[in-house]
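Friendly challenge for the regulars: who can give me the structure tokens for this chain first? No prize, just bragging rights.
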Amino acid sequence: MGRPFMKIAACRNQSWFVCASFLLWFLLLCVYHSQFMVGKNLIALLGNHNPDIADNVAKDSGSVDSVSLPKEITESSSTKLRDEGHHINVVFNDRSGDFNLRTKDVFGIQEHGIENFGQHSVSKKELEPHDHNDQARDLIENEAQSDKNLVESVDPEEHIDERVESNSDSCLGKYIYVHDIPSKFYKDLLQKCGSLSNWTNMCDFASNSGLGPHLPNFERVYSNTGWFSTNQFLLEVIFHNRMKQYNCLTKDSSQASAIFVPYYAGLDVARYLWGSNMFMRDSGSLEIVKWLREKPEWNKMWGRDHFMVAGRITWDFRRWTDTDSEWGNKLMLLPESKNMTMLTIESSPWNSNDFAIPYPTYFHPSKDNEVFQWQNRMRRQRRRILFSFAGGPRPNLQSSIRNEIIDQCRDARRKCKLLECTSGPDKCHKPVFVMKMFQGSVFCLQPPGDSLTRRSIFDSILAGCIPVFFHPGSAYVQYLWHLPRDYTKYSVFIPAFDIKNGRVSIERILQRIPRQKVVEMREEVIKLIPKVIYADPSSRLETLEDAFDIVVKGVLERVDTIRRDMREGKNTSFDYAEKVSWKYNLFGTVEEHEWDPFLERGQM
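First reply, four minutes later:
Bragging rights claimed.
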């Protein structure tokens, strides 16, 4: 009897043990399954129970749940991932407890499961407990390893070549080579600045890269920065220093699209314009072209890809006869110079190898914002004077209309302001008086003086004053790269013949212009300001093109046209008489034009 009872008792004990074990496993399974239902953190789910990790799984059952990275990782790494275009999602299946990590990155990797995800998958080390810094470091290391593996799949030399090609593309067709000419043609001239002029000490004007000394602003005529007492004949120095900042300079002349010759032709000849014989005046010009001829770069296009700035008017370089009594030297008439692109502050309408570029003004900004602020100030400027004139009479020039203009200005009384210039010290030579008058005027009269052009044209544009021209050679046939072809948008034209004959009144003509038209013209003038100023060579403008940038673009386009014609075997000489080159450059034709009487050879 004892044995069966013992058997029954043992069976009962075994049944309770099995039931208890089953119940325990059931409870564990419920606890395990409940982690999917109550929204535990992904890291806790996988065994890391760090309570500081605050990123939660969304509670939207049966849908795709996104997981955020820990805060420290976000701050140190997610910016990098976001910038590079990575996007990481963790996908749950609440019913099965399975999860799948998916990614899409900038390298074109498709969506992957955890088993074959590759470098962007969650590694075993990432699933183990560790502190936040370790998490951030591991994530960054994995990211770097991924980038390394991707880079190793491409030839590194190929990437270097691509970068060089990319840089080259940005300068393709824009490279400029600067000739390393002897210092006596430029640097030595500045060191002897005291001998550059018989009347003016040019040493002060040569300071600040040719901009001259800073202008004081006691009367608040200028803006706070960027204003200098700039001499109109120092453009060569300013241009050269701007060229040193050019983005596409090259030391390989074979790569260059154009070649710059930094010869200070104007400063050189200025020493000998008065009281010297023609041999002294010609010496520098003859030496520089001889030096150029002997260089291998010259033989490539026989100088047609060379360009030079001569910071005086063209007539200082066009002496037609070899006599001491004739003015200037013959730089522009030398065969070598005729092949080059010659840039001057006033060109010859009757010759094809020189191009006019703006006179330097007093404003040389170093930042775009300085230009914008000045333009806005000129838009708001109150202008109480109808028209004004800064200049003096020219009694020795029969064709000059300056006497008539001065008389009309005086007759207009309060409607015209006159800043009369004499041979001695006067207000005309002080920028503050000129700029103040122009800023208060609606129109600024710009008649020819000793030559067709004058610096005052660009001073008036800088002041937002609408220029009034009396000769097409003063601007319209000159500054083709910088001023609009449609001159009626920004200026008024009154024929000099009508002024000379007393047939018209300047005051009446200007008063008849509708107010809205005046507003539109002034806005066009103000828009021209960046195009006619030379930025400070010590810095660079970011978005604006200044006069220098426009000149370089014009030169490169001209040289490219000549090079293409030479390559195609075309004749690079002109098929029209050079004396009508002004007409062809402006209108593209040599047909008869209403300006012909103004531009007959010798008619100033």
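Residues 1-11, 35-166 have pLDDT under 50 and may be disordered. The radius of gyration is 39 Å. Your move, everyone else.
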